[in-house]
Amino acid sequence: MSQAVSAGRARPSAQEPALVVEHSEKAGLVARLAHTAFRLTVRPALGLASAVLGSVNDKNLLWIPRLLDPCLFLMPPIRGTHRRRVQLLNCRAEWVWHDGTPDPGSSQGPVVLYFHGGGFTSCGLNTHRRLASDLAKTTGAAVLNVDYQQLPSASFADTLQDAVEAYEWLLASGRRADQIAFGGDSAGGGLAFRAAIEVRDLGIGVPGAVFAFSPWADLDCAQKAIHPNHRLDPLLSAQILGNVVKVGLAKDGLIDPSWSSVNHDFAGLPPASIHVGSTECLLPDAELLAKRLGEAGVPCSLKIWDRQIHVFPAGAVVLPEARAALEEVGQFVRSSLASA
């Protein structure tokens, strides 16, 4: 197994812990209102849809969430952002870059390779265009937002392969591994770490950094089901996630443990940054992911944000905490990646 580390990557000293956990200040008024509103509206709706999926147990129902992204084809990026569609081997992607950043098609500057969330069943280039453009602004890098294959027409293996091929495409364009950061949210956050593990094991060379918002890093929902946040999360629950796994990913009731990034060795991975809300049902995933990274000696920062909803950085237009998290990730990416 290849566990190469890019030359010159800093490692924690004997006195410096690999894992740093930070808690945010108390949530502001807008965040608290959003938390309550989502708990009263969105979670019951998702819970009902999940219950139907679990009882019918028909994989074809997973086509329904796929309709969300096409409906948002007019979703604009933030002002001052440019974008261009590209075709990868088996999926599409979209370049997103901000004023002041060179056109990624004609430059070899830093890149964020981004994997959107959506539970492997929903979302895509349209739903995540604004978040990608926010990241392009705060990181100073061009963002390649990958529209990877999803359920029910593709397997997790197909999804992971798309992630690896997107990275290989960037390397083939002339960029170095240490100029590329992997990032993602929710299912895409777990995928970002799983893809980093995969390229390490394939000997391709690890990227310069990895970050995630609310990562779904453990597809086994048993621990999430017994965590207090199973009931506190205003958006998701272990049951909602578990029914996606049951219907879309499991075979004969079993899930391949190798698909979950938390079940792997993290030695040789690049510095990592993880952001999650304090009441999210995915908090155990974020904490376990950070713990495993720290145990492997990988520099990792975990920030737990008071009462922030799932993937709260997507709400930067209204949430001050979202803008703060994006700025922190921007600083992390800029400090981690080598200059072009």
TrEMBL record:
InterPro entries linked: AB_hydrolase_3 (IPR013094), AB_hydrolase_fold (IPR029058), GDXG_lipolytic_enzyme (IPR050300)
Keywords: Hydrolase
Domain spans labelled Alpha/beta hydrolase fold-3: 112-312
Domain of life: Bacteria
Hydrolase as UniProt keyword: yes
GO terms, molecular function: triacylglycerol lipase activity
Gene3D superfamilies found in the cross-reference section: alpha/beta hydrolase
Family: Belongs to the 'GDXG' lipolytic enzyme family.
PANTHER family: AB HYDROLASE SUPERFAMILY PROTEIN C4A8.06C, ACETYL-HYDROLASE LIPR-RELATED
The protein, known as: Alpha/beta hydrolase fold-3 domain-containing protein
Taxonomic source organism: Segniliparus rugosus (strain ATCC BAA-974 / DSM 45345 / CCUG 50838 / CIP 108380 / JCM 13579 / CDC 945)
Lineage of the organism: Bacteria, Bacillati, Actinomycetota, Actinomycetes, Mycobacteriales
